[in-house]
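Thread: quick sanity check before group meeting

JM: Hey all, I'm pulling together slides for Thursday and realized we never actually wrote out the predicted structure for the chain we discussed last week. Dropping the sequence here so it's in one place. If anyone has concerns about the input, flag it before I start.
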Amino acid sequence: MDYSNIDDLFTEEMNNHNNLITMAGSLQKVLATVSKYGLDINDLFSTVLEYIQKKEYGNAARTLADVVYSIEQLANELKAISNSIQQGVLKVYEQESEGL
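JM (edit): ok, ran it. Output follows.
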């Protein structure tokens, strides 16, 4: 981009700054969700082991289904983090190639 006016450059930099803050907030939210699912998975595994020790295999199987669901949700959240970071990196490279 050609910035013949310093006001345009300033506006673009402010937009970049605001986008960075928004992305950081989104990543923080997703990381909190990832942590929650990670803790849930750990707790659920403990519960599955307790059920197995008590020979309550039906309960163990149902709880294991919850573990699988939580792992799936964790994978989705990790993918969201990866996509967000990738978009941010691509934007930085795009700006560098434009001389910003």
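AS: nice. The mean pLDDT is 81. The chain has two helices and no strands.
JM: adding both to the slides.
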